[in-house]
Fold this sequence. Notes:
By secondary structure, the protein is α+β, with helices and mostly antiparallel strands. It has 2 domains: about 60-205 and about 215-225, Alpha-Beta Complex (Penicillin-binding protein 2a (Domain 2)), CATH 3.90.1310.10; about 230-575, Beta-lactamase, CATH 3.40.710. It has helices at about 1-45, 45-55, 90-95, 100-105, 110-120, 135-140, 165-170, 180-185, 185-190, 230-245, 280-285, 290, 300-310, 345-350, 355-365, 365-375, 400-410, 420-430, 455-465, 535-555, 565-575; strands at about 55-60, 70, 75-90, 125-135, 150-160, 195-200, 205-215, 225, 250-255, 265-270, 320, 325-330, 330-335, 340-345, 435, 450, 485-495, 500-510, 520-525. The model is unreliable at about 565-575 (pLDDT under 50).
Amino acid sequence: xxxxATATQSLLNSFRLRSHFVAACMLLGALVLLGRAVQLQVFNxxxxxxxxxxxxxxxxQIVAHRGAIMDRNGQSLAVSTPVDSIWVxxxxxxxxxxxxxxxxxxxxxxxxxxxxxxxxxxxxxxxYLRRHMNPADAEKILALDLPGVDRLREYRRYYPxxxxxxxxxxxxxxxxxxxxxxxxxxxxxxxGRPGQRKVLKDRLGRVVEDVEAIEPASPGRTLASSIDxxxxxLAYRAxxxxxxxxxxxxxxxxxLDIATGEVLAMVNQPAYNPNDRTQRDAARYRNxxxxxxxxxxxxxKPLVVAAALESGQYQPDTVVNTAPGxxxxxxxxxKDKRNHGRIDLATLLARSSNVGATKVAMSLEPEQLYDVLxxxxxxxxxxxxxxxxxxxxxxxxxxxxxxxxxTLAYGYGLSMTPLQLAQAYAILAAGGLQRPVSLLRxxxxxxxxxxxxxxxxxxxxxxxxxxxxxxGTGAAxxxxxxxxxxxxGTARKxxxxxxxxNRFVAVFAxxxxxxxxRLAAVVIVDDPRAGEYYGGTVAAPVFSAVMEGALRIxxxxxxxxxxxxxxxxxxxxxx
Length: 575
């Protein structure tokens, strides 16, 4: 019995020792954990915070809103709309490859193609899956809750007027940077400055909290262009109709405000829609009115006449003998359609006599003619600031031969852009004063530069009225109840070996109203192939349609109530 009690006591003692040992171990473990906690929370706090921030705190970019482009009356030509871009961390998603088919279906793509793309970029932490999505469609993808997949808020450019203003406004790339037109020329003005914010991300790389703003985004500034969208639509419609009617290769129209130098309309055909990226082909989106050059043909004759009057050798009533209807210059025979005999300078322009213009130009010193033409802006860009603007070609007078000076008289052997030609006619309309061409709305017109004497400009302007008279070549350019001045041009196109016999450029340049010119416009129809090809029958009607609507829109008072209402009758008489 005693032996049994001793054994029991021994077991109890052993249990107590083991329990005390376990309790001591647990206490020691608790003390170690407590000490470690104190070490981490007190002594290593800053270090651990830095490590956590390095793994979960990120600096995210705040996309800046691009400035809008407006017409002169506040109508939108280019605006930015919010869109979402879906991106992925390939390393995160590749850990769960079974989720890739679901992502591919949401994107509307082949799962194998998406998998290959992720595998090729497996070493990256950022990869765009789809740019510029509708926010609602992006939300559906995010609802799948796939690891490493997130969205980025961006902006996409939208052009409300489409192809009506496409050539002038231009477009941006997928990153919203200007690539053509005003978007490129004034990218520094339109582009905002991105901001920065500190965000907290989870282990999948998704933003779970905005911590603080580091630098706010600065949106781009609004650009007020010189364009009047109403006149732009008129010009677009009239030019497109003419190009289609005459089966032409291309065409351009430029309308200038004479008092300010502002471009109120500038259109080209063929056109393109900047909202459709598939149409962004260089042959379609270049602004032909500024970048393409042409030989102006007889539309240059008023500038030659201005040079003659400026020289003092000629007066408006000076007679030029064009008989017998042709003139030999070197190896070239220059001819008129018929023998006009003895004519004054106004008749020379009205009947567009090549012989008369040649005799006038040949009688001037090359330096005199060259000086006046360069003062009109030929041979150098107009300084509009538009990307890719051409300065045209006008060789120095020291390089001229007699035949060079002769052909230059009726618009061959030099080249210019439609904008340069419009500016030259605007100078005539402004009394010999040149104002810089502007594609931006002008609040205070700059001080003009004198190009030719005021009396010379007025005399040439009066002569140009006869061109649109019943006996002139530009009768189809008339506008009911307004006096119009202008000049036709029909230039043969250059072809291999010389000039083509069946390819032409139809030109009309004019001003209205002639008593106090407000608008200058140039119409170019390149390579019409439907039969008619003269500037007076192809380009002049476009001028009439555009000018009639523009003068009405701008509420310009009529200055000629005696003009016949039917331009068709006038055109038939001219023929």
